Structures
1.
Amino acid sequence: MSQLNDNIARAQDYMRRFRDRGVLNHINGESLAADSGKTFETLSPVDLAPLANVACGGASDIDRAVQAAEKAFKTWSKTPGKERRAILIKVAEAIEARAEEIAFTECMDTGQSLRFMSKAAIRGAANFRFFADKAPQAEDGQALRNDTQMNVTSRRPLGPIGVITPWNTPFMLSTWKIAPALASGCTVVHKPAEFSPMTAKLLVEIAEEAGLPKGVLNLVNGFGEDAGKALTEHPGIKAVAFVGESRTGQLIMAQAAPTLKRFHFELGGKNPVVVFDDADIDRAVNAASFMIYSLNGERCTSSSRLLVQDTIYEEFTRRVAEVANGVKVGHPLDPDTVVGPLIHPEHEEKVLSYFDKAREEGATVAAGGEKVGDAGCFVRPTLFTNARNDMTIAQEEIFGPVLTAIPFKDEEEALRLANDTQYGLAAYLWTNDLDRAMRLTDELEAGMIWVNSENVRHLPSPFGGVKASGIGRDGGDWSFDFYMETVNVSFPRKAHPVPKLG
Ligand code: NAD
């Protein structure tokens, strides 16, 4: 049997339970259908065959999950950090033990290729380990004194958190939000994306089998406008950690305004990779191609705008086109596949509409620009050249393996083009001139800037965007600042004169 057939058979074995019993909600340790009894189908992006029925939760399911999270918060928030750490490390180990099941399920549910997804579970486990290790010190604060006072700060977990996640790399992204929330002593109600619900169910089951008490992590599936909206409006939810589109972030902010919640938003991007002619061109070609054609380009930090100095523009774009034409598009479980099918026909239609738009606007299709085959949501890795930054393909987030290349003359123009976008998530800068790197990194409007590198994550460093790309930072201690409330207690250092009135 070929490796692909073997992988497909193993994936079917892993997913059989979902096909037979559906993807249920998980509240207070119990697998539950939606109160309404309604379900929706999740489809395989490979051939559009239904993979499973998913519980279609609504307001009453959310309410039940929030009540469970509120009850569990009473004990979880008081569980010593060392004990929380021990449990979360066990969760990380349990994730590692089931890494293949998570990866195969994720590939089939999202269309992301195994080449990249095989690391998703490991990355998820690393998130749990990293934040688990910080749990014992999470509540520690500072001692701030002056002549008359000693101020002591400490941090307390906020309460039940609503975590709302998108469909791209759903397992890894969910752990990125859920692990620090749990390490802080918060409890969670998770609403995963309707296009990719499966691995969220695996996560909550794995966590409870590893010792996470019931009700600490709860899962409600459903649509954004029902289950998602109800979660953001629920008064028992103290903060919303949201990853998704900028437009959805706007809606959530409005929905949650009457209950005055804290927000953390990780939103869209149209990230520039800026390449000067003094850069290491081989490395820059590989990094720019990797950051748009890996993970199907369905990646918030993808380098979707390629800004190249005009002196090397022709050569550079020719080489990126060669990469685009050379990568394998295929079944996500084929070990050689780089680009799998896009998540869903609706999303595929959106991506294909930009191919038409690019031609209408006068860009050149230097690679791809078309659908592959009739079945499934496969599109060819695409490069548009001769583009301008005011074109739709340079301004809107396409969220597929689609790169728009624009030439620039000098540093001033490069900076102007890079910043001429509503977004500000990531920027990639390629130059061997240190002074130029210093100048530009001061001016680029992005929350994260990688110099002479693709996106390489470092968990203690802050992750997040500026402008329409987000509010707040995750990573390191930044996560704890979000999931915890800082409290200041002031003690007099001596009997100071208290003002007397009257
Ligand atoms: P989306 O905004 O459509 O959906 C994300 C989640 O929000 C889903 O679970 C959805 O059900 C829910 N939702 C939708 N409407 C809602 C509402 N009114 N109230 C509450 N919840 C609601 O995003 P998507 O299409 O699933 O994901 C792709 C987007 O996510 C892209 O824009 C991408 O850039 C972004 N993203 C950002 C980051 C980052 O770190 N900045 C990371 C990954 C993805």
2.
Amino acid sequence: MEFSQHSANISSSSSPLSSPPVPFWWQPSQQAHFNGFWFPGSDNLRRTLKVVDSFKPQSRDVILASFPKTGTTWLKSLLYSITHSSSLDSLNHNHPHLLVPSLELLVFATNPAGPAAPSDETGGTRIFNTHIPYQVLSGNLNSSDCKVVYVTRNPKDTVISLFHYVKKSKTFEEAPWTVEEAADQFCKGVVPYGPYYEHVLGYRKESLENPQKVFFVTYEELKGDPIAHVKRLAEFLGCPVGEEAAEEIVRRCSFGELSNAAVNKSGDMFTWLGLPNNSFFRKGEVGDYANFLSPETIRRIDDLTVDKFHKAGFMYGI
Ligand code: A3P
């Protein structure tokens, strides 16, 4: 498969915003373009293509798909808890990103042969996550009866969360750009796994056409009524939980509990990115964008949201 790679010197942050999109988001300061989407570097894209070429989901697999910073870590904990009775102990001792490994960042990065076979211990259920767009991964996902859970989040909070997350990377040079520049790149679609809108719409369309296969939920819906959504998720996965069990899962996976667990407070995740474990827990709120984005940028993102989501019948994101 062919892909192109664009490099940029991240210290030259003085580039005018009107210049052609320059991918600044990540070290090593480059992103690779494939099938209409941007991937954070050619190594990442190679691993992504390995997943596309080799990953054969089993019928009891659960694939958590998301655009970065939309609630992946939260959903990992919830899905793991719903499907594993011993989840409390596991969550105390393991970062959610290790309990539910990323196909492209961990599984195929550490073992080119792919994941271990399902084990009887968990009734044959394996849970993976991916940021790979549906438009790129659909062949794999539809090759078995595996279930897909997709979480999304409003675009303004997503870009703010991503901006802070990238800034926390120890390999990322000190604040090379502003939040407004980040939002500008986001709007241009030049963002890891972006464009955001096409990413969301790809999975949403499939969830509408095939609701038994793809469960689509928003971060805001989960925040609004987490217990009801945990019960819906459990039902979808074929392992229903009662009110009390749902309450306990929600409590154990809450932002307060997870962010204060010792295992999530220290150490690094994905050493090649130098990301601290705690960088997956910042504020966990809805609407934090209002503290960072100018009224003009809010209007620009809202206009884009109307154009991309509302015109496609998805009345979400403003
Ligand atoms: P903020 O940066 O807005 O705080 P991802 O897991 O996809 O990388 O998304 C990270 C975002 O989800 C961060 O948002 C993080 O704080 C928030 N988050 C992590 N765990 C959460 C939880 N248990 N409940 C709610 N939000 C959570």
